[in-house]
Design brief:
With about 130 residues, the protein is mostly beta strands. Helices cover about 10% and strands about 35% of the residues.
């Protein structure tokens, strides 16, 4: 098994979630060694929540789980890409399919290019899951 370099970045490494069929980048989160091991053993994406200082089992509140189909590791073993099947339609806590729904044109114009899949206030009990 590959050994990820958790020590380099203080115990956390970036984990990019990407739709395994389309290649769409859904989100960026972080994993620690415990999240990595649980992801490997369950096949479900598990992250480390920096704001809550605990494991974050994707979908435990929203039901929008990520089934890991493949994992890519970068050349330095300090970043991973989880190629996932996004169940429930949305990866973002704001209710969007992807966290990357805001786009900036070369002229600086900002646009939001995605519809909301679910109402975060109904799912999390507060506005935009914050």
């Amino acid at each position: 098994m590959i050994k990820l370099d958790f020590a380099k970045c203080g115990g956390l490494i970036p984990a990019i979630a990407q739709d395994y069929k389309t290649g769409e980048v859904l989100m960026l989160a972080y994993i620690n060694e415990e999240a990595w091991q649980e992801t490997l053993s369950t096949g479900h994406a598990v992250y480390y929540s920096r704001s809550r200082s605990k494991l974050w089992r994707k979908g435990e509140s929203s039901g929008n789980v990520q089934l890991v189909k493949e994992i890519a590791v970068d050349c330095d073993c300090d970043t991973v890409v989880f190629k996932v099947e996004q169940l429930g339609g949305a990866a973002c806590h704001t209710g969007h399919r992807s966290c990357f729904y805001t786009h900036i044109a070369p002229d600086g114009a900002v646009s939001v290019d995605e519809d909301i899949v679910f109402d975060p206030e109904k799912v999390y009990g507060k506005k935009e899951g914050k």
